[in-house]
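User: For a benchmark we're assembling, each entry needs the component sequences followed by a predicted structure for the full assembly. Here are entry 17's components. Please fill in the structure.
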Amino acid sequence: MQTPAPFEYERATTVEGAIATLAKIGPEARLIAGGHSLLPMMKLRLANPEYLIDINDLDELSYIDERITEIRIGALTRHAELLESELLARRAPVFRDAEEVIADPVVRNRGTIGGSLCQADAAEDLSAVCAALKAQVVLRGPTGERTTGMDGFYIGPFTTAVAADEMLTEIRIPLRSGAGSAHEKVERRAGDFAIAAVSAAVWIEGGVIADAGLALGALGPTTIIATRAEDLLRGKPPSEELFVQAGEIASEDCAPVPDGRGPVDYKRHLAKVLSVRALRRATARALQQEA
Amino acid sequence: MEVKIRINGQEVSRDVEPRTLLVHFIRDTPGLTGTHWGCDTSNCGACVVLMDGKPVKSCTTLAAMCVGHEIRTVESLEQNGRLDPVQMGFHEKHGLHCGFCTPGMLMTTRALLDTNPNPTEAEIRTAISGAICRCTGYKNIVSAVRWAAEQEADRSAMRQEA
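Assistant: Structure for entry 17:
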């Protein structure tokens, strides 16, 4: 029987209260929402928090709001809500691509975007999605809020920039014109973690890629932002040759390890192929030419 | 800690450790062993119950998290000796073999029909993609859910005529 080691449990009623408990207990306290990543790790003793703060009642953290320059997503928004959001499907379709292949519908009823990002599993899909979209995350602590980009969010495997007394409360997706985005994933079976996954975003102005985002999942110790590939794409008209070049750079710049999901050369091959496919589809969406 | 949960309309209360999983609370406290305890890793779907009407995997949910929420298990499907149409569908279409996955399949597909009364085969297959049947009975499970959907449509039409 798999059961977590003993811990103390508290149900948070306010964000401030949850943060105050985090500050009081220290690093042995953990927030729990859906629990579909944390509880399995606790059962395996890979995580041993002594104190769990249940934030499922914090309804004020569950929303998908469109502002003029960004979409704001509350950290407690469930995968099922992200999948069903017409707003995200229209403005950032990479979310729906990814959500369709994250776990299964029952797990998606519980799992949250904040939990997915903070778990910092390199094979988790939303981290690549948010990195490609150049999202900012809002971290709230005892003395106030700060924001950080996804480029500074992952410090190492299962380790983020969120301090022990901070809580990720919101994800901000910038809205710019000419945007298109897509997520591509190869998995062993439905609902599994990726063998490799790639999220791409492009912003096309006047026939030229004004900006690009390319993020790789399951291809290194953390989600990898393929910055050299992004640099190559920027300022050039989109073309199949360009996407192949970007894919080759992504394949070089990733750092996969061999495991039960496949050997390194296969994963590097996927990094290239999935980058090309994601860029192609993101571009078609930006140009409203998706087949 | 004292955990009090409404399960199938009844308040159930017990002093348990915070680490108690919902699946064990359901099986051990009111003794409702219809909810099966399978893979323990949220992969197999045998332990699915409804939480406020939505299917969740009870092996990966703490009982303490369910305080203040409404839980429905497979035992709630039969009402006054009448099987739920989904249960009748599994009977009619032979939607089970060993039966281990069945409680989770029934609750998952009951929730599907509650939100989508006329699902396509693809929608049914997506809905049960988090539930594993190792007797390879998916074809009959899909037929069973379609059968239940048609039964419920007929009943609802008859109610409207009457």
